[in-house]
User: Which sequence fits this backbone?
């Protein structure tokens, strides 16, 4: 009986991985599952292929892609590609393949999820309904306004000091990722909310505390405490989703881009080092454009397919 042209080389290589390369049993077992899955797939999809010597990059790319379509984790896809590259390197060394067709491949990534956002009226209702009946409520309202007005990150707001704020100039200095400092603009409602908070801040602040936002004990608010206060605000308002700092940051960026169309300005506001990071918001902006087009353009909605002439 002639040896299996697919499974024979796999078995030989796995034995070498376990003995010569001293791979762990867990790793060898994972490699075996990956390569056996590939063998089954090649036999089903490409029964005309005589063996490994005829495998091309497009075959391997399609196999990796169907793994992603099945919902395999990114770590699993990376491991599959690693096993594949090692095995095919072995076949190149053995003279079965002239070159490794997996060397130019990368594990397929899941489509990047668009950041969640809020509609303008949702944010407006949330901010306008924020209570102002005690110092902590005034502080929370000021934080909400700052997140939405200046699109600051959680760490940027938590790390802000009193000296970073310039209400007359209408900006706040924040320290972003990579130690990059920027001035974030403040809208009129945010400046008003911050003024109200600064009036009552002395009732809470401890001696020598420089933090802009403090808690009951007069010390700087932690990230966790800020997240909890935003979650409470969402529950109080009956918001149908979890409210977190990035949701308000994304809402600010999205609404600004929808109104202005100025991607560079949004990049500056968000403190992104590269414009490519900001460009995900163009997808959100296009979604908004498409919705407006469908509602407003007289030729957007066709009642039926045009009849052939």
Assistant:
């Amino acid at each position: 009986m002639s040896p299996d042209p697919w499974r024979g080389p796999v078995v030989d290589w796995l034995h070498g991985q376990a003995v010569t390369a001293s791979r762990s049993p867990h790793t060898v077992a994972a490699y075996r599952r990956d390569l056996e899955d590939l063998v089954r797939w090649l036999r089903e999809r490409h029964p005309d292929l005589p063996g490994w010597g005829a495998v091309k990059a497009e075959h391997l790319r399609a196999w990796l892609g169907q793994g992603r379509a099945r919902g395999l984790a990114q770590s699993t896809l990376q491991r599959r590609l690693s096993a594949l590259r090692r095995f095919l390197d072995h076949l190149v060394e053995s003279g079965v393949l002239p070159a490794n067709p997996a060397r130019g491949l990368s594990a397929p990534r899941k489509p990047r999820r668009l950041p969640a956002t809020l509609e303008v009226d949702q944010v407006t209702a949330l901010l306008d309904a924020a209570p102002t009946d005690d110092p902590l409520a005034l502080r929370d309202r000021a934080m909400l306004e700052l997140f939405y007005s200046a699109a600051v990150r959680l760490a940027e707001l938590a790390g802000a000091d009193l000296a970073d704020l310039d209400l007359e100039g209408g900006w706040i200095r924040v320290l972003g990722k990579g130690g990059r400092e920027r001035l974030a603009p403040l809208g009129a409602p945010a400046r008003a909310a911050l003024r109200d908070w600064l009036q009552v801040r002395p009732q809470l602040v401890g001696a020598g505390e420089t933090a802009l936002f403090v808690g009951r004990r007069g010390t700087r608010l932690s990230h966790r405490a800020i997240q909890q206060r935003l979650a409470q605000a969402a529950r109080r308002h009956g918001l149908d989703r979890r409210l977190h700092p990035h949701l308000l940051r994304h809402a600010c960026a999205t609404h600004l881009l929808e109104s202005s169309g100025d991607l560079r300005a949004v990049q500056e506001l968000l403190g992104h080092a590269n414009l490519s990071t900001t460009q995900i918001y163009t997808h959100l902006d296009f979604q908004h454009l498409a919705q407006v087009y469908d509602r407003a353009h007289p030729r957007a909605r066709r009642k039926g397919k045009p009849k052939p002439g």
Residues 302-309 have pLDDT under 50 and may be disordered. DSSP finds 13 helices and three strands in the chain. The first helix runs from residue 7 to 19.
